[in-house]
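Re: the 381-residue chain
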Amino acid sequence: MRNFVLKRILCFFLAIITITAVTAVSAEEKEYTLCKAMTEATGSVIISEQNAETPVPVGTMAKLMTVLLAAEHIEAGKLSLDSKLKTSEYANSMQGAQIWLMPGEEITVDELLKAVIIGNANDASVVLAEKIAVSEEKFAELMNVRAKELGMENTYFTNCSGYYDDDKQISTAHDMARLCAELSKYDFLCGYFTCWRDFVRGGETELVNSNEAVKDYKGLIGFKAGYTENAGYCAALGAERDGVMYISVILGCDDKDKSLSDAKSLLSMGFSQYTVFTPERPKDVPAEIAVRGGISKTVPVESESIRSVVLPNEAAGSVTSRIVMTEYVYAPVEKGRKVGEIQFLRNDKMIFAVDIRTAASAEEMDTKKALCIILKKLLTF
């Protein structure tokens, strides 16, 4: 009987140990979809990628959109860095990373940006959101509208911090690169993004940046590293050297150090293996195009500016061009009508094109205008 009781007790403890072990393993082995993207400065052209268009949770990376909307309001004169904003009861109720703002407490936009960018503070995010859109719910609507305007078609936000509902803040590595490209246009943000350690509230609250790349990566201009349970470890970095900028984004990584090292490796690959190349304009682009049925027999044409492209170092000399243009157009012709394009190709595959458009208008010929022309010629004969 005694042995039976001992066996039952032993089995009970073994069951507890097994359940605990299984729970620990399942927590540690949470699976994420690893997504990577490295783009040039505009964020539109992917140079290197892995699952770059796959929508995944991004958690607190949503704060990058909060920062962008704040920067746009500052640029438009609707906010200033020294403006003091008042903390609401709702902002005070935020959990997670915070600077412990009290209801009614006033704090400058400058310090709020420090708190959001360097300290990842959820309460500071809400104070900015409520100032811009009255409520966090309305602010989230603005976030989604702006995302669509930037071409972030696979992105959706529900709040300004990304700490809550971290599984509902959805984006892709490519979409986040587009967002970072827009953020890079605001030079005044660079000081916040690249700061490792700072203080707010008269030195009472210390802020330490989770983006450790700010300490050692040459040319870094921003942006953010973060973690939530559903998003995993995420990192978005931008760097500029000799006037060339690349952006890298890592989403859904299971290790903090790896997320940052992968992001830095992608940037380094851009600087070491790629070059920014501007093709020459072909010399045989026509200066004009024939017009049928118009008062003028021709109208001048012009091509758009030729932009730069990012290519592997060995590929710059392999770019060719061809002109695709219609022989004539029918009147009436409005200025700016597309009549062709200059196509730039590599290995017979088009990498980009610039439009050829009419540089002037041409009226349509009719009986009255024809008679006027004939009469004018007779009078000057």
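The first helix runs from residue 2 to 28.
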